[in-house]
Amino acid sequence: MSQLERTRLALPERRMLNAHQSAEYLGVSLQWFRNEMPVAPIKLGDSIRWDRKALDQWVDGQTKSTANMTGDEWLGMMD
Description:
79 residues, alpha+beta, 5 helices, flat
């Protein structure tokens, strides 16, 4: 491995994703993503992309916070 290869910085994760990448990122089928995803895409030139941060926010809104759950609610999650 050359000195240049050792010093090369890793690229940050891609922020803007196409439909296939977005579906894969969320772990859902492409069909479900295209038919059900409420997050609006962004048009960049001729491309349609979804913002990874917007997808993350949507997912965060789908999950119930466990911080303020009662014992009965915790037990209900185990059913």
